[in-house]
Design goal:
- By secondary structure, this protein is α/β, with parallel strands linked by helices.
- It has 17 helices and eight strands.
- The protein has a single domain, classed as Alpha-Beta Barrel (TIM Barrel), CATH 3.20.20.140.
- β6, α11 (about 240-250) and β7 form a beta-alpha-beta unit.
- The longest helix is centred in the middle third of the chain and has 19 residues, at about 125-140.
- Bound molecules: adenine and zinc ion.
- Its EC number is 3.5.4.4.
């Protein structure tokens, strides 16, 4: 669809329109969808002498970073504010509000238990809080959520292996697989091959962040050694034409998170130069995601707006990206077809597309 023949929508009209388009989000970190209010409350609980202003200063101190490893330190600092597994009830409430606000009908979210296990929390208790809340969200809103446990590359192979063992001992239908997040520079993909192999042998799906902070070699290792079904980010693939061909040939979707990449600054410094355009044009199944809403100040609808207003995707192309979000997900084919059909119905019934 040519952008030049299309009436340009204003921001409000665009957001109102896309809110009504059913979307999946498949790269979203649970502990990063926590609201600022919840973080402030956790800080004040830990520091009863703080007023709101002092708590806000503390938030400002934590949320100061300029690269991925700095961000990961901040992430761990926020996880450190939790006092017990019951705190996840608040975080899931924030997740529910986020999903509703953004018109998301299905989400695959990462939950990263390493920091909590290190505090001595019981993994089975954590899992039962996750499960209870996923069911609650679906009952209250009809939105389906599934969890991928981020076994983490930050703390080495043994920690990742231990996380998998804990998961295998606490299987539940709401947890469908594992992911690999954390410090890509300190935890190369190739270390985790056996963890991924074992997870798949037990029926779990496997995905991994790659090419976010390390060059295309990290993506190659992730598709060839980890054999991940999807790549989180994958942006360094832009510099390797053979790798792009391989992602197309093997139909490996990319979970693209543009604002996150601009924030961590490794391969892109402005939205306009983001390689999502190149990936889309070359035929990769690209999806749009927010990654870490509170940390990067962005929600899924904002990313659709950025793709439209800054990167230059047309409405028809964004419709395809919304459909891709279901195509690239781990739901069954029938369910995918229903969601994609629902995208079409919402599209046709919307005045913004009638011109
Ligand atoms: N954990 C949370 N967000 C992450 C990201 N963007 N990369 C790696 N690990 C993460
Ligand atoms: Zn991520």
């Amino acid at each position: 669809m040519e952008r030049t023949t299309e009436k340009q929508l204003g921001k409000e009209e665009f957001l109102n329109f896309f809110r009504k388009i059913p979307k999946a989000e498949i790269h979203l970190h649970l502990e990063a969808v926590i609201s600022r209010d919840t973080v402030r409350r956790f800080i004040r609980r830990r520091n009863p002498e703080f007023d709101d202003e002092r708590a806000e200063q503390e938030i400002g101190r934590i949320f100061t970073y300029s690269d991925l490893n700095g961000f990961i330190k901040a992430y761990l600092a926020v996880q450190d504010l939790y006092d017990s597994p019951a705190d996840f009830n608040d975080v899931f409430r924030d997740l529910r509000d986020y999903l509703v606000r953004n018109g998301i009908k299905y989400a695959e979210i990462f939950a990263a238990p390493s920091a909590f296990i290190k505090k001595g929390w019981d993994f089975s208790e954590i899992v039962s809080v996750y499960m209870k809340n996923v069911i609650k969200i679906e009952t209250e809103t009809g939105i389906k959520v599934r969890i991928l446990i981020d076994v983490s590359r930050t703390f080495g192979f043994e920690n990742a292996e231990k996380n998998l063992q804990l998961l295998l001992a606490n299987m539940t239908p709401v947890i469908i697989g594992i992911g690999l997040g954390g410090s890509e520079t300190n935890g190369p993909a190739r270390l985790f091959g056996s963890v991924f192999e074992k997870a798949r042998s037990r029926g779990l799906v496997t995905v991994a962040h790659a090419g976010e902070d390390v060059g295309p070699e990290s993506v190659w290792d992730t598709i060839n050694i980890l054999r991940a079904a999807r790549i989180g980010h994958g942006i360094s693939s832009a510099g390797d034409e053979k790798l792009i061909d391989e992602l197309v040939r093997r139909n490996i979707p990319l979970e693209v998170c543009p604002t996150s990449n601009v924030f961590t600054r490794k391969f892109v410094s402005t939205m306009k130069e983001h390689p999502i355009r190149k990936f889309f044009d070359r035929g990769i199944t690209v999806t749009l995601n927010s990654d870490d809403p509170l940390f990067f100040g962005v929600e899924l609808l904002d990313e659709y707006w950025n793709a439209y207003a800054e990167i230059g995707f047309s409405l028809a192309e964004l419709r395809k990206i919304a459909e891709n979000s279901f195509r690239a997900s781990f739901i069954g084919d029938d369910e995918k077809a229903k969601f994609i059909d629902a995208v079409g119905k919402a599209w046709d019934g919307n005045p913004a597309t009638a011109r």
